[in-house]
Specification:
Distance between the termini: 16 Å
Helix content: 10-25%
Pathway: Cofactor biosynthesis; nicotinate biosynthesis; nicotinate from nicotinamide: step 1/1
Strand content: 15-25%
EC number: 3.5.1.19
Protein name: nicotinamidase
Keywords: Hydrolase, Metal-binding, Pyridine nucleotide biosynthesis
Shape: globular
Radius of gyration: 15 Å
Enzyme class: hydrolase
Number of helices: 4
Strand order of the largest sheet: 3-2-1-4-5-6
Length: 177
């Protein structure tokens, strides 16, 4: 079985949010189209406490139960089967959806007999990259849908390095689905 994994498509990572991916809003229509192509759709959410070591490196973002942690209203989120929360403790960053504390994602996907993961979301250099690398380590055939991913672009070259790291680790990169 194949599944779609949407990484951190949340208000705080969109233009106008606390830690925006400059082109993050452009992937929403693409993700909405993808939602119709998959029977199983999992989405991760950054779900930080108000105080966390994570905010020593980054602006405060995606605080649990805040508007910034919500999915954007334009996202057809009713088609999401399961939501996992990550970065929920004050001592962790939660860059990968496989670090979710609300559900063991690897076991959940295995129980659903998922063999192939298609990954999209935000941001290329951090949470998407780490989720892809962990998906590969967990043994899933992993494909990244490039036109459904956007970077935060905090440092020049980081996004390109992330694409290279994912590909070298064994992920398949496709321009669109």
């Amino acid at each position: 079985m194949k599944a779609l994994l949407i990484v951190d498509l949340q208000n705080d990572f969109l233009p106008g949010g606390a830690l925006p991916a400059p082109y993050g809003n452009q992937i929403i229509p693409v993700v909405n189209q993808l939602l119709n192509q998959f029977e199983l759709v999992v989405a991760s959410k950054d779900w930080h406490p108000e105080k966390t070591v994570h905010f020593e490196q980054w602006p405060v973002h995606c605080v649990a139960n805040s508007a910034g942690a919500d999915f954007p209203s334009e996202l057809n989120h009713e088609k999401i089967t399961t939501i996992v929360q990550k970065g929920t403790r004050d001592s962790d960053d939660g860059y990968s959806a496989f670090e979710a504390t609300s559900l063991n994602l690897k076991k959940y996907l295995q129980k659903k007999q998922v063999k192939e993961l298609y990954i999209c979301g935000l941001t290329t250099e951090y949470c998407v990259k780490n989720t892809v690398l962990d998906a590969l380590k967990a043994g899933f055939k992993t494909t990244v849908i490039q036109n459904a991913v956007a970077g935060v672009r905090a440092k020049p070259g980081d996004e390109e390095q992330a694409w290279t790291a994912m590909q070298q680790a064994g992920a398949k990169l496709i321009p669109s689905f």
